Amino acid sequence: MPSVLRERFWERFALSELTPPEWEALCDGCGRCCVIKLLDDNTEQLHYTSLACRLLDAGSARCRDYGDRFRQVPGCVAVTPEIAGQDWLPATCAYRRLARSQRLPDWHPLLTGDPASVEAAGYSVKGKVTSEQSVHEDDYEDYVVRWLG
Length: 149
Known about the structure:
Layout: H1 9-12, H2 20-26, E1 35-39, E2 46-52, E3 56-57, E4 62-63, H3 69-72, H4 94-99, H5 109-112, H6 117-120, E5 130-131, E6 144-145
């Protein structure tokens, strides 16, 4: 059976030319896109928190209802080639990096062949986040963190 993914597709094709399986394979599964971010109105600096979307499973850093996430969480944003380079995505994100003509990080599963390489390198939020539902919105600032990378 032929592979669904073209060889080193991330180096050979623009984001807009990827197949749906290739697009999904770019996600390293770190979960950082699913954490609550706060924008400082004075400096316009984006701050990450250790609070995750209510659908993010903190034990696996995966969405509990990926297929229905937009209905479940109206504020959930679909990453598309048009917005892939935006700053709200982590600097280590494959979508953001490729949109900015940067290489994948050395620990990316497409390069290592191991999905656990993200966690081993320290970039996964697995076991490091709390559900946003357990904290009042007024207290989100208390959960600002500085992530590796």
